[in-house]
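Subject: sequence -> structure tokens, single chain

Hey, anyone have a minute? Need the predicted structure for the following. Not urgent.
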Amino acid sequence: IPFKFFEFWTEHPRFGEIVAQSWTVEVHGTPMFCLYRKLRFLKVQLRRLNREEFSDLSERVERARRDLLRAQDDLLSGVGDPGRGGLEGDAAVRFSTLARMEESMLRQKARIRWLELGDRNMAFFFSSVRSRQNRGGVRSLISDDGRTIRCQQELLAEARGYFSSLLSAAPRVAGLRDDQVLPLIRQVIPQDQASVLAVPVLIEEVRAAFFALGRHKASGPDGYNAEFFRSSWSV
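Reply:
Had a minute. Here:
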């Protein structure tokens, strides 16, 4: 199953500690390679956190709901000691926290950018997730000879052959020098602007770019979205 970072993980008390521990792993290589390896190692730790703390989240929400209703019934009926009001408050906090996490998970899965929800319309979210899954598959392809392919194995072979041919094709233009290419460019930016483009990128500029991204934007190919980098920037 492809890794996907869920934003509600950041609410767990151990999230920052887990990220910090992963970042202390010693890796040798280029800065980009080190970042890649540490993010890859962190995936293992986050999967473990999700399995231990958030597995069967919908069932946990339902269990917390029943516990809250039971505590409220006991409080209203006067069963037990007067201190049960505190138990009811704890049950309410737990249910609210788990329900908010479930809502965040479903919203993220459905890729719906709603920052504030008046009601927790779970049925709509589940329906949206199922709809995306049903639209995500490739059921048929048309080959170069006009034949319609529907068999799964033939679909894989056709796609593999197409992209292998596309990506391994020799370049049509090779061996051109800069003095041969530059005259073909009609408009060249001034030297002062070219110098600005060559200036090294500052860490403050990278931070500003990350924090300018929407909090609920879809994740990249590695499964990490902008919210992960925003919440872990201090590490």
